[in-house]
Design a protein that fits this description.
By secondary structure, this protein is of the alpha+beta class. Helices cover 29% and strands 40% of the residues. The chain is built from one helix and three strands, in the order βββα. The chain has one helix at 28-39, and strands at residues 3-8, 11-16, 21-25. It has a three-stranded antiparallel β-sheet. Strand 1 and strand 2 form a beta hairpin. The longest helix has 12 residues, at 28-39. The chain is flat and about 25 Å long.
Length: 42
């Protein structure tokens, strides 16, 4: 799955490349861990 991570007011939001919201996280590291665990992303 391809995705984009955006910094938004002190947290990060993860979206598909088509713009569908997936989830938010407190930090970039947390977002990447979630992607690895839930979406099998690199």
């Amino acid at each position: 799955m391809e995705y984009t991570i955006r910094q938004v007011r002190g947290h990060v939001e993860v979206y598909t490349l088509e713009g569908k919201f997936l989830f938010s996280a407190d930090t970039l590291r947390e977002a990447r861990e979630e992607l690895r665990e839930e979406y099998n992303a690199a």
